[in-house]
């Protein structure tokens, strides 16, 4: 049971610093193998005192974010957690483990079908220039854009976006070389805050062997696919190739915090947020699951004191970074999650912790009350987006909750069909790195796709690849795109960073105020019936019932309503 989350904007570049060596760990501690930790300084404490505290506990700072007061620390002191927490300059300490994960992609299962290839129209695209009003070659497959009126006859005509508006994608990376992303991709402003991790504490593969000597991927590379799909949904241009995103004229910035494997660690997430805030990024999309704790609880009796302290640190550091970003004008958008659960109710979680930070760690069962927090989707000032299928029903996998969901958006639902059997075209189509399609054997020798979920579009000798995926990770970038249109339409000149800016609170008001209200289904307890294809060719019937609470103006399935790109720029 996991939740997808969309990261939104932030501030201050990470500084790699060496800790002072004037102090050491207490004499009653022992030295073991070197481990990594994250240390959260007391709010307002001087860096000098914080550095002394880390050194006194036997730690060496590897990376530091002064804006938030968070550092990644290495130590061979086996009592580092205890020694560091005793320091008056320290607010929290945790083992350095993944705090999030990009959802495993949900390629809509379907009966074998012939892959589709379409030839594009001629035309050119210059960054910042006005786009053609003609539909893109694959526009007929973009039911999602039609649903929110992001079309040539809708929002594209009235406001296609302004290239001065910066959209940060906090994800697994962006394939900036993809021909349907490159025209809007800002490589110079993009950053990668991650370093590849070959294996975890048990020796199990995480990212696998490093592709580059530094173990740091270039800012225009995505070895996962997730971030590229998200970026394309937001801002693929109107260039006569493939698809168009919600805001086809805005600028994409890769603010990478996710590993190749999809894991997100606390320091890169915080660094991505603060960097975004400090560099004038207007909105950030956060489409990743909260891990290793699906929910962070400060005093769950099922957790050890160490685990409780760890989760408190994650909450405190995340909230500081989110507040910093919001304060600096970044609108924060997050996926609601794919756990098919009501966030406002007590549930059972048997999946945490799901990342091995020390040898032998394993998930265990916990009762999770609503007081526990899923970061960043439940963070303060974060807009959580639920997912819809083609019929506008809430997607069968989407998390929900009255007061939790801000608005809803197309995320795909392959089972939203008359017979309840999967149809791949009911998912969301967006850009796919060609390198991954080749590695996975999804292309024929002539370059045409050989699987039903991959599509190719060509304009002359230039071809782009696209794939169908579904999830709240696909819903949140639709909302992020509408936010970018809102800033394009109503923003004012940003005297600090250049470009445009608009208060996140004003953006929220317009986004929610122009959404199309949608009442709960009748009956409110809606039963999903799916017929899932088995390996032997038979179908298994699967049912689940989700209950929608609230009125037409705001409820647990749709929040304030379904986003409307045209309505938002006609406000």
From TrEMBL:
Coiled coil: none annotated. The keyword Zinc-finger does not apply. Keywords: Hydrolase, Protease, Serine protease, Signal. Residues 1-23 form the signal peptide. The active site is at residues 171, 226, 473. Residues 164-543 form the Peptidase S8/S53 domain. The keyword Protease applies. Belongs to the peptidase S8 family. This is S8 family serine peptidase. It comes from Actinoallomurus acaciae. The lineage of its organism: Bacteria, Bacillati, Actinomycetota, Actinomycetes, Streptosporangiales.
